[in-house]
Task: structure prediction
Amino acid sequence: MPGILYLCATPIGNLEDITIRVIRTLKEVDLIAAEDTRNSIKLLNHFEIQTPMTSYHAHNKYDKGKLLVEKLSAGKHIALITDAGTPAISDPGEELVQMCYEAGIQVTSLPGANACLTALSLSGLSTCRFAFEGFLPTDKRERRHILEELKKETRTIIFYEAPHRLCKTLRLLWETLGNRQVVVCRELTKRYETVYLADLEKACAYYEKQGVKGECVLVIAGKDWKQIQKETRAEWANLSMEEHIHLYLEQGIDKKEAMRLVAKDRGISKRDVYQHFISP
Result:
């Protein structure tokens, strides 16, 4: 019988934030695949876990992934851990999970610490709907494309960021998304944990003056829906009624439905649209 791949969440700072189930699993599996064995050995030593380790990280994830799948196929049980938090969430693991499913190997996740949800719950911003973006891409074109997509995002947005890039990222978000509310969570669960609430403009000024140490999570308010409606109606107002309805007719929508949509877009009554087109 093939083995099982266990995705084990590890603490994001405070070593007490680990489950009894994860500790037991790390002791019982045949092998632990760790993002950085030099970092993970501190965790294993703390909990007196003597299971052998091997490295699995972004630079060897395909070659090492094949070897791990072979071991799993041969009946070995393997635990995957990252430097902090839940594997495969902005950390190596996604590809290994896919490879396991393709090979018919069972995968299970052992829940635990997660910086994204920890910051969201601390933020005081809306938690009903949120968009997790992880780290912004380093490629300028890809980064610009993502930020353009987020301009009208109404959900709360969550980013991860390294301390040396925080000020640059805050300014970029301010310039692109506008001056939204932001909560900067730093050093979560650690001794010097801080939660800073401001708008993006004030946050830029604050961290450019104060500097920052430690990994950060940015929680940003979604765009106000009423503001989006106002801006959208302003855009529609730049079109003539004829141009507006033609946009829908080109999509194969019948004229009656097109008139209803035009009325909705412009915030006017269907009668006003109808009268416009039947008036001599």
In short: Residues 61-73 form the longest helix (13 residues). The chain has twelve helices and ten strands. The chain has a mean pLDDT of 92.
